[in-house]
UniProtKB/TrEMBL annotation:
Signal peptide: none annotated. Pfam families: DUF433 (PF04255). This is DUF433 domain-containing protein. InterPro entries: DUF433, Homeodomain-like_sf, WH-like_DNA-bd_sf. It comes from the Archaea. It comes from Candidatus Methanofastidiosum methylothiophilum.
Length: 48
């Protein structure tokens, strides 16, 4: 991912998740689309 921070165990970048949240996606919508993610993983993105 060219040095971008990612969610552990995935190839999903923190920046991508934050961008989805900024564009009014809900956590449930993200989890439905990306089954490898967890709520804890998304919360870690917010803390980061």
């Amino acid at each position: 991912m060219t040095g971008k921070p990612i969610i552990k165990g995935t190839r999903v970048s923190v920046q991508y998740i934050l961008n989805l949240l900024a564009n009014d996606y809900t956590v449930d919508e993200i989890l439905k689309e990306y089954e490898v993610l967890t709520k804890d993983g998304i919360n870690v993105c917010l803390v980061y």
